[in-house]
Inverse folding.
């Protein structure tokens, strides 16, 4: 993507061509926005010259992504956005199951989920269950910097691809292993899905209303994304270590522990006081009002008054400044003691106004407030547009697809999207012939035996 944050329209290149689950400032005239053109703005297509590729921070780094779905492979997506060459190694028949997960498209080998999350990759088909496939894979490992896998612990070893074996062919190799429960421990061989990790880590226990069935904490596989983010951090740390020592290392991430790590103070609160945090519905135990509130027109807003000053501003927005007096609810401890009363006051005030009116009054007084956006709201929101959060990319065989754009935004070396999820095996011949030096005749032989 060109420097800056505007979305870039890019055309996917077309060279020739195994288990983990994946299954604010806001506008005040939201009703007017809902009638606006939902198409994100787009810059003209811009080619990516070699000089641009070379200045990206991870240019020259080669990544092998041999995992399935998201937990781990998403780390490869991040690295690819900032210049790394990502080779997606898949089984010759069917490829990554992610290709069939999510909303179908006109391409038989690509759902919308695949197109978005398998961005910036080349697909190389190799059957790792056959000895010739393993030998081929080891040649690829010898010429790569990073290997990412997310199979159940022990699977790579069963294929003859243990960490010592991989290190023997490439001492500088960095290997990220993502699994449900990590590579060690009594549960290491259990199937690991994001939904199960949410439960095991304690996140799902906190989601929902008091005394009711715990709910899914959103429909996205958050654990897969979070584990991959920690994995990407680990890779960058390991690259720095390799710069100093020349040696690679193994990175081990359990999906559950990545989720557990972001649950703020639940561990010290229990360890020190025996306190078990329970489900709190749309509110929070740390502050009030701090939750979701329905407006007069049936929409919703989020309000977060985490300090006395913020509540004072809300009282002014309500035109009831006395609520923030020391005698009433000006002190956080008094608000928490009168949680139900304060929440009810907020419910009644918000419920008497449209969402646009609530937003306008709160923003005028600098109250932390935001609309509960649907994806339609996001497509029409001026801030999403200004930040370039939606990118329009041409996908082979599908046409134009809107996907989340690259983050973070770097001032000197911004990331980019070169292509969406590739067709199965679109770079097999290129990689085997040009990178590994295998003859055309041998490639033909490997295809005939379904090794590739």
């Amino acid at each position: 993507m060109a420097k800056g944050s505007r979305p870039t329209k890019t055309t996917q290149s077309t060279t020739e061509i195994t288990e983990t689950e994946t299954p604010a400032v806001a506008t005040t005239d939201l009703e007017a926005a809902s009638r606006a053109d939902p198409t994100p703005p787009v810059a003209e297509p811009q080619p990516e010259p070699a000089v641009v590729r070379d200045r990206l921070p991870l240019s020259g780094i080669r990544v092998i992504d041999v995992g399935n779905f998201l937990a781990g492979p998403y780390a490869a997506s991040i690295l690819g956005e900032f210049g790394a060459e990502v080779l997606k190694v898949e089984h010759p028949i069917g490829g990554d199951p992610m290709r069939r997960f999510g909303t179908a498209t006109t391409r038989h080998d690509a759902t919308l989920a695949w197109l978005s999350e398998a961005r910036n990759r080349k697909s190389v088909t190799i059957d790792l269950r056959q000895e010739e496939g393993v030998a081929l894979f080891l040649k690829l490992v010898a010429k790569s910097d990073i290997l990412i896998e997310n199979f159940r612990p022990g699977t790579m070893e069963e294929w003859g691809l243990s960490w010592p074996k991989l290190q023997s062919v490439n001492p500088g190799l960095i290997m990220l292993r993502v699994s449900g429960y990590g590579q060690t421990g009594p549960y290491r061989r259990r199937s690991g899905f994001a939904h199960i990790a949410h439960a095991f880590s304690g996140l799902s226990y906190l989601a929902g209303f008091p005394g009711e069935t715990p709910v899914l904490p959103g429909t996205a596989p958050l654990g897969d994304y979070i584990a991959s983010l920690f994995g990407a951090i680990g890779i960058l740390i390991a690259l720095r270590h390799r710069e100093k020592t020349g040696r690679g290392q193994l990175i081990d991430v359990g999906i559950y522990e990545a989720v557990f790590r972001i649950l703020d103070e639940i561990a010290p609160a229990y360890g020190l006081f025996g306190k078990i945090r329970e489900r709190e519905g749309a509110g929070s135990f740390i502050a009030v009002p701090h939750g979701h509130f329905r407006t007069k027109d049936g929409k919703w807003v989020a309000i977060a008054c985490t300090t006395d000053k913020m509540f004072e501003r809300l009282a002014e927005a309500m035109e009831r400044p006395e609520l923030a007096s020391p005698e009433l609810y000006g002190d956080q401890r008094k608000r928490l003691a009168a949680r139900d009363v304060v929440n009810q006051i907020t419910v009644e005030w918000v419920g008497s106004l449209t969402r646009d009116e609530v937003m306008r009054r709160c923003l005028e007084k600098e109250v932390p407030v935001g609309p509960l956006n649907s994806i339609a709201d996001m497509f029409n929101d001026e801030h999403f547009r200004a930040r370039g959060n939606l990118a329009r990319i041409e996908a082979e065989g599908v046409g134009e697809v809107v996907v989340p754009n690259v983050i973070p935004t770097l001032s000197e070396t911004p990331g980019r999207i070169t292509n969406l999820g590739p067709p199965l095996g679109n770079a097999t011949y290129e990689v085997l012939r040009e990178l590994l030096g295998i003859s055309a005749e041998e490639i033909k032989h490997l295809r005939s035996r379904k090794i590739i």
Remarks:
- The longest strand covers residues 85-90.
- The CA atoms of residues 3 and 414 lie 6 Å apart.
- The chain has a mean pLDDT of 90.
- The chain is about 35% helix and 10% strand.
